[in-house]
Design goal:
This protein is an alpha/beta fold. It has two domains: 53 residues, 2,3-Dihydroxybiphenyl 1,2-Dioxygenase, domain 1 (Roll); 60 residues, 2,3-Dihydroxybiphenyl 1,2-Dioxygenase, domain 1 (Roll), CATH 3.10.180. 20% of the residues lie in helices and 32% in strands. The strands form two sheets. Strands 1-4-3-2 form a four-stranded mixed beta sheet, with helices on one face. The protein starts with 7 loop residues before the first strand and ends with a strand. The mean pLDDT is 94.
């Protein structure tokens, strides 16, 4: 197997239906395919890596996620080109998804960093970036 490569990521969410609507189209745009689906979760896979979203139990929903607390800050995905970044930016805004750091987009990560930053329904930051 591929020693050291990421096997999977599992993220608990506040509203599975809303999360599936958001992440389903995004991951499929990036080449992932639907992998597993059950009452409390769903996953998408690309090659040997998959991402799982699971509905958090009601008793754990009292403190909302915030990326500046201890834990996950953001997920960053490779884009194939600057053109893909631009196309995805248009699709995101067309869906009413807020683009983060609009004043410096697409160079919010620095002048040599071409990316789009946005948030999922639980405000987990997502980055789509062209490797430089």
């Amino acid at each position: 197997m591929s020693k050291g490569l990421l096997h999977h990521i599992e993220i608990y969410v506040s509203d599975l239906s809303r999360t599936v609507d958001f992440w389903g189209w995004l991951l499929e745009e990036l080449g992932y395919t639907s992998y597993q689906k059950w009452e409390k979760g769903q996953s998408w896979k690309i090659d040997n890596t998959y991402i799982v979203f699971v509905q958090a139990e009601e008793r754990f929903l009292d403190i909302p996620y915030h990326r500046c607390r201890v834990g996950l800050n953001h997920l960053a995905f490779h884009a194939s080109s600057r053109q893909q970044i631009d196309e995805m930016t248009n699709k995101l805004t067309g869906k009413g998804i807020n683009i983060l750091y609009p004043e410096s987009h697409p160079h919010a990560g620095g002048e040599n960093h071409y990316a789009v930053y946005f948030e999922d329904p639980d405000r987990i930051k997502v980055e789509l970036v062209v490797p430089e």
